[in-house]
Design goal:
Homodimer. Keywords: Cytoplasm, Glycosyltransferase, Purine salvage, Transferase. Xanthine binds at residues 27, 157. The protein is an alpha/beta fold and 192 residues long. It has one domain (2-189): Rossmann fold (3-Layer(aba) Sandwich), CATH 3.40.50. It is 29% helix and 35% strand. The chain contains five helices and ten strands. A hairpin with a 4-residue loop joins strand 5 and strand 6. It is globular and about 45 Å long. The model has no long low-confidence stretch (mean pLDDT 92).
Amino acid sequence: MKELEQRILLDGRVLPGEVVKVDSFLNHQLDVAFLSKMGQAIYDRFKDQHVTKILTIEASGIAIAVLASTYFGNVPVVFAKKGASSNIGTDFYTAPVHSYTKNKDYNVIVSKRYLSEEDRVLIIDDFLAEGQAMTGMMSLCDQANATIVGLSVAIEKGFQSGGKKLREAGYNLDSLAIIESIEDEVITFRPQ
């Protein structure tokens, strides 16, 4: 998505450790009109997959997932919570996840009420680096015997292994923008 690449170059910042900050429009302050365009792009790529649920992880994937849902006829959006809370009960799926950005391990959970074997799931997230969050969400789907029809991320760090592993495993992964490299704080995108 050329518009996303341009927006990353215009408003994004590179921090130490090849961290790409896009919090001015994607994952802190939200540019809803722009996120809606991203949701439309995701829909255009997966509209023939008969999606019945969209799965994401709290918190940064929620906005993109909700706006994509509007194009899929408002299919339910389920978000994996980072840890149990007293109001979710005890009947849930759980999977370990390591956050590359926060360098922290946690368990994500989804209530068994909201993910089942009848579901055709599109998994959406804001970033893909090593693929830990994506793998965790895929595990939740596997535990529910749900069908994973696609994986979509806003920004993939193509120089890290997550996207390559998922594609080699045969998953239908689509990234709106793929960063090929970051050198001296200069971002280069992979042609799509």
